[in-house]
């Protein structure tokens, strides 16, 4: 009898899993409780894969041999409760896809910094001539790429939700950047459960595999004291030297892998801003060196790296005034990293939908680095209350174009105009991407019409 795979969720990962399952000879059915995007419907239809949307048909789903679920579906969903009661195994797309490739897996997780680290590591491998795919939270689904199985390496950005559905998957290199409270509604508001979820990235690793982690993070360090990791541990630090791993030393990164000669890279040669990105860069470089990429190739590749949009992204400059788009900074912690990233005066554009922010964490940095604050939002009272007393130049607007114009009129040579909202975007924009794009468009208009503005 033909084994039956049911896919819950018809996004990138779900459709990729459906295609791979069909290619491997399974009977496949796709169920999405929401609305399936037209581009994914057309793929399913072209491959004659049956699907439903707007519901989960319990009788069809409970007939599965195995279920592959989208990371976005919580374990509390009724259909998952029914699957557990029926004893039907539920896994994720990454777990399923990894069964069908012998490629090396380089996996990255952390509450913050995953995407930057993943993209940098992928860039280092690709520019060094390796055959490498990009998957997980970025790129195409791993399952869809495994169908062709043309890569020797995969670089995977993994969220805690994806890690929760890994069981036999093994990383050859794992990176754990940091652990701070996030998505606790999915973990019964138990931070320990969330921490254990992040550490699932080390499951099944062997002593010869490589585990790169930020050892200055108290949560990571304390967890490892209680649960020592039995693999090649490579700590990364901003504050202390390491016998093995990587650390900051006199404005340079020192790398000690034990597999090749030690080497140094100047921090000025890292093409991304901020202390958090120093951590990300050290982790990516260390991981790349552990699979045999030499420091000369790494140095060369660093020169051409461009981070993902809306993450401390340089947009342009005029008269030594630098425009930086950090629209992805939707919380106070992310904006903290942005404000401390520059040793130049900052004109800061902030605001949006407040998520219960505690701005006290930013006051010392704002006092030191910020010369003016432009509040961009429908309700700016909390920002004004937090910074009005310490910043003599504070203005308000509800238009991005106006925010950039106000900032440019205040700016002097050597200043940074920084969009780092510390808030969600939903009061004035569809999402942080639209907010960032409008910032970039406004900057472009400034550059084209700078004489009129000045």
Automatic annotation (TrEMBL):
Keyword hit for Aminoacyl-tRNA synthetase: no
Intracellular or extracellular location(s): Cytoplasm
SUPFAM superfamilies: MurCD N-terminal domain, MurD-like peptide ligases, catalytic domain, MurD-like peptide ligases, peptide-binding domain
Pfam families the UniProt entry points to: Mur_ligase_C (PF02875), Mur_ligase_M (PF08245), MurD-like_N (PF21799)
Residues in the signal sequence: none
Pathway noted in the entry: Cell wall biogenesis; peptidoglycan biosynthesis
Domain Mur ligase C-terminal: 310-423
One Gene Ontology molecular-function label: UDP-N-acetylmuramoylalanine-D-glutamate ligase activity
UniProt entry keywords in alphabetical sequence: ATP-binding, Cell cycle, Cell division, Cell shape, Cell wall biogenesis/degradation, Cytoplasm, Ligase, Nucleotide-binding, Peptidoglycan synthesis
Enzyme class: ligase
Enzyme nomenclature, EC number: 6.3.2.9
Residues the entry annotates as binding ATP: 110-116
Highest taxon of source: Bacteria
Annotated catalysed reactions: UDP-N-acetyl-alpha-D-muramoyl-L-alanine + D-glutamate + ATP = UDP-N-acetyl-alpha-D-muramoyl-L-alanyl-D-glutamate + ADP + phosphate + H(+)
PROSITE patterns: FOLYLPOLYGLU_SYNT_1
InterPro entries: Folylpolyglutamate_synth_CS, Mur-like_cat_sf, Mur_ligase_C, Mur_ligase_C_dom_sf, Mur_ligase_cen, MurD
Residue ranges of every copy of the Mur ligase central domain listed in the record: 108-288
Entry keyword Ligase: yes
Family designation: Belongs to the MurCDEF family.
NCBIfam families, alphabetized: murD (TIGR01087)
Function comment: Cell wall formation. Catalyzes the addition of glutamate to the nucleotide precursor UDP-N-acetylmuramoyl-L-alanine (UMA).
Protein name (database record): UDP-N-acetylmuramoylalanine--D-glutamate ligase
Encoding gene, per UniProt annotation: murD
């Amino acid at each position: 009898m033909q084994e039956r795979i049911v896919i819950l969720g018809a996004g990138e990962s779900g459709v990729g899993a459906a295609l791979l399952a069909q290619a491997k000879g399974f009977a496949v059915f796709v169920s999405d409780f929401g609305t399936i995007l037209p581009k994914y419907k057309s793929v399913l239809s072209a491959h004659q894969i049956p699907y439903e949307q707007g519901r989960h048909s319990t009788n069809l789903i409970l007939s599965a041999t195995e279920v592959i679920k989208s990371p976005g579906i919580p374990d509390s969903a009724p259909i998952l409760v029914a699957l557990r009661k029926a004893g039907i195994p539920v896994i994720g797309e990454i777990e399923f896809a990894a069964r069908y490739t012998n490629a090396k897996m380089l996996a990255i997780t952390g509450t913050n910094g995953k995407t930057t680290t993943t993209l940098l590591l992928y860039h280092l491998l690709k520019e060094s001539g390796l055959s490498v795919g990009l998957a997980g939270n970025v790129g195409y689904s791993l399952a869809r790429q495994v169908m062709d199985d043309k890569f020797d390496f995969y670089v995977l950005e993994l969220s805690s939700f994806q890690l929760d559905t890994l069981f036999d998957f093994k990383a050859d290199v794992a990176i754990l950047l940091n652990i701070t409270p996030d998505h606790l509604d999915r973990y019964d508001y138990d931070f320990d459960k969330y921490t254990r979820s992040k550490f699932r990235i080390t499951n099944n690793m062997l002593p010869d595999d490589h585990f790169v982690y930020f050892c200055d993070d108290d949560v990571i360090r304390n967890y490892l004291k209680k649960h020592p990791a039995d693999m090649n541990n490579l700590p990364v630090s901003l504050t202390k030297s390491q016998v093995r791993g990587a650390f900051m030393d006199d404005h340079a990164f020192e790398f000690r892998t034990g597999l090749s000669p030690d080497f140094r890279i100047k921090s000025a040669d890292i093409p991304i801003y901020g202390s958090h990105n120093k951590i990300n860069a050290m982790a990516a470089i260390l991981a790349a060196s552990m699979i045999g990429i030499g420091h000369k190739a790494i140095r060369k590749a660093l020169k051409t790296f461009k981070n993902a949009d809306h993450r401390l992204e340089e947009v342009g400059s005029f008269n030594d005034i630098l425009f930086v788009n950090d629209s992805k900074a939707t919380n106070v912690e992310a904006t903290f990293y942005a404000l401390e990233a520059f040793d130049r005066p900052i004109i800061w554009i902030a605001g949006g939908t407040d998520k219960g922010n505690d701005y006290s964490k930013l006051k010392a940095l704002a006092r030191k680095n910020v010369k003016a604050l432009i509040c961009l939002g429908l309700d700016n009272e909390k920002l004004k209350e937090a910074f009005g007393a310490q910043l003599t130049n504070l203005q308000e607007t509800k238009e991005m174009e106006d925010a950039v114009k106000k900032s440019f009129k205040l700016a002097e040579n050597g200043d940074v105009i920084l969009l780092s909202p510390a808030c969600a975007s939903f009061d004035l924009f569809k999402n942080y991407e639209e907010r960032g794009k409008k910032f970039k468009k406004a900057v472009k208009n400034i550059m084209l019409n700078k004489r009129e503005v000045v």
